[in-house]
Amino acid sequence: MESEQAILAFAALAQSTRLDVFRLLIEHEPLGLPAGEVARRLAVPHNTMSTHLAVLTRAGLIGAERQSRTIIYRAKLDTVRAMAGFLVKDCCRGRPDVCEPLISDLSPCCSPQALVAKEAADD
């Protein structure tokens, strides 16, 4: 990830509603959420949510897919990975023991299959 792209992504997340949207979409990977459901869950007017979703999309943090009349938004996990890599690129300078706690914190809490099962149970 280049510095300019990182700055754009971090700037998009430097607003509380957009950060909440992004975290909600991360929580609902890999299925994503319809735009209206995102607005409803965060109690944000639809037109305001549309603006926030556009900012996150331009920053490359989320993507949208039209399914009939519904637009499903998903977090772009590759961008999240690139952002984390950008932040820790020069971590530890040859001392992996220094970075190990950070790396373990970045490890997913459960398998992708468990996430799909959890999502199905929540709906």
Automatic annotation (TrEMBL):
Key words, A-Z: DNA-binding, Transcription, Transcription regulation
Native source organism of the sequence: Ancylobacter oerskovii
PANTHER family: ARSENICAL RESISTANCE OPERON REPRESSOR ARSR-RELATED
Domain of life of the native organism: Bacteria
Coiled coil: none
Organismal lineage: Bacteria, Pseudomonadati, Pseudomonadota, Alphaproteobacteria, Hyphomicrobiales
Segments forming domain HTH arsR-type: 1-95
Protein name listed in UniProt: ArsR/SmtB family transcription factor
